[in-house]
Amino acid sequence: MLSSGPSDSTFASLDVELAGGTVRVGSDDPDHPEEWPVREVVVAAYRMASRAVTNAEFAEFVVATGHRTDAERYGSSFVFAGFLPDDFPATRGVAAAPWWREVEGASWDHPYGPHSDLSGLDDHPVVHVSRNDAEAYAAWRGARLPTEHEWEYAARGGLVGQPFPWGDELEPGGEHRMNVWQGTFPTEDTGADGWRGTCPVDAFPANGFGLHNMTGNVWEWCSDGDGVSRGGSYLCHASYCRRYRVAGRQHHAADSSAGNLGFRLVADTRPGTK
């Protein structure tokens, strides 16, 4: 049974108030029919955390509740092959994405496998968490996961019809605005944006609503359907995955996990607030 979370601090951590309203979501990108069509939806007012949940925050939850993630219960999770030592034993891969390797002992606190830990990663987003794990953490905090419409409205930061939270250029003026793959995927990541793998949850400037890293860094779980995540990750590259856009989306099983999949929290606006 989960213990009660620190309710007094819940709304302090959900530090961005979003007015909602009638908003446009989706895209007409010919390469991504899962995003079709552009449409208007109504989103009620709510609050959102300005950043994804960190390793340090998830550790607090685990200590308080004894929660075991799905990856820990199953005994493995999926790790990007480039993070594994050259002499790492052969493991099961993913046929359509051979750069993913199933690694026994990979989990939120051992992100690259049992040989790794969270040293220096306290302020990086927690990964190897399933939607089930994310929902358990959210309940402990007195919060929830966003719906897809809430997530996309927030990611757009007040802009309309733009692919990125800051506008229509991936790197405006040559400036990196998010953590994605640079170089030749999957063999060389130059780290030109300053990072290989995850970065701190507030490493890049916030969008117009004050939200950090809504695209890139890690995919973020939403509450809709059997398991949808949004926003792309540090592994996204134009050569195979242009889902590092505000309309980008993908499906997973609710109990699945990987080294580029995290989450952030939202909550309904408290009665009496505007």
SSE layout and pairing:
Elements: H1 7-13, E1 16-18, E2 21-25, E3 39-43, E4 46-48, H2 55-65, H3 70-74, E5 76-80, E6 93-94, E7 97-104, H4 131-140, H5 148-156, E8 183-184, E9 188-189, E10 219-222, E11 228-230, E12 249-251, E13 261-262, E14 266-268
Parallel strand pairs: 10-13
Antiparallel strand pairs: 1-4, 2-3, 4-14, 5-7, 6-7, 8-9, 10-11, 11-12
What does this structure look like?
This protein is an alpha+beta fold and 274 residues long. Helix content is 15%, strand content 18%. The protein has one domain (8-69, 123-268): paralog of FGE (formylglycine-generating enzyme) (Alpha-Beta Complex). It has 5 helices and 14 strands. The strands form 5 sheets. A 4-stranded mixed sheet has the order 12-11-10-13, with helices on one face. A 3-stranded antiparallel sheet has the order 1-4-14, with no helix packed on it. Strands 5-7-6 form a 3-stranded antiparallel sheet. A hairpin with a 2-residue loop joins strand 6 (93-94) and strand 7. It is globular, with a radius of gyration of 18 Å. The two termini are 34 Å apart.
